Every structure is written in structure tokens, then in C-alpha cells.
Write the C-alpha cells for this entry.
Amino acid sequence: MTGPIDFRRRMRRTIRHLAQSNRGSVMLEMAFSIPFLVLVGFGGLEIANLTLAHTRVSQLGLNTADNAARIAAGSNLTQPQVREVDINEVFAGAERQVAGLGFENNGRIILSSLQRNDDGGQTIKWQRCFGNLEVASAYGVEGTGATGMDFPGMGPVGREVKAAAGTAIMFVEVTYEYQPLLFGAWLGPRTIRSSAAYNVREARDLSGVKAPGTPARCED
């Protein structure tokens, strides 16, 4: 039969054991730190995804302008022409490049042909668009600068690109509304913009875009 003295001894040993044990404090610390670690982990994932989206949009602008500058449909007897079907193929390639971003619904590519007008000034000879995001070109619409010398070209003020006589520049503007993965309520949609310009690779018929193909006009 256990006496009071033995019971007290066991109680003292139990209390000393509990006092020396750190399991409870570790569990308490983990309970406080896990939500913070989860928040930091998912925040890092969001930042990485946003950075990747910036990179993909930037590459999209460069590749679209480059591909548009390589269009050369024609024969050795005539200058290469730009056809609507060729532009549509450039946009189809762009759509594949940003697969997974939902770009068609949340973005827009504006492709402009910057050329010289008859007065020696700059003009946007033609312009085509891809994507459902409602955004206009930052530098002008098709027909801007058709006459005169007032239109300075396309690009940031003071750093506009200008087409030389007898050639054209494929100028691309890309706008994308980034859709957050997890922190939509805090981060909200973020607008990513990029632009790129390439000179056409060879002599080209600069009179305008030819058939066949359905025009991807910006006002549609």
C-alpha cells in the first residue's frame, strides 16, 4: 500500500520532470511560428510567379517584334508583302509563348508598322492587335502622322525610334494584367507593360497589309 510519503515523492519527481521538459514550449513556439512561415512561403511563391510573369511578358514583346520583322511573303520578282494571315501567325506564336498566363483574356499585344510618310515624317502605317484587354497604344493609332512632320516616332519622349526611308520598324506594345495566385485581396491585379522594336529584315512592300486573312484590327 502506497503511503503519503511515496505519493509526495512521486509528485515532486513529476513536477521536476515537467519543469525540466521543453516539449511544451517547443509546441507553443511552433503554434505561433507555423502561420508566419506559411505566409512567408506563399508570399515568396507569389513574388517568384510575378517575377516570372514580368520575364515572360518582356520576352513576348521581343519575340513578337522579331517575328513580325521576319515576315517575307512573295517571290523573287516582287517585294515581299505583309499579309493578314502572316500577322495572325505571329499572334498565334505569341499566344503559345505565354500559354498558361490567360493572356488572351487579360492582355493585349499592339503591333504597329512605323514608316516614313510622303513628307519625310514618321507615321503608323498599319496597326494590328491581339488580346481582349481594352487598352490603346501609348503612341498613336493607325494613320497617326500620315502627313507632315509633327509625329516624332514611337517610344518614350526623347527616346523615340524612327523609321528610315524605304524601310519599316515593327513596334510592339504588350500590356498584361497579372492575376495573383494567392494574395489577390492584398496584391490585386498588377499591370505589366513591355515594348520592343525591330527593323524589318529585308526590303518589303510598304504599301500596307494584304489579303488573305482576317484582319486583327485594334478597334474590333
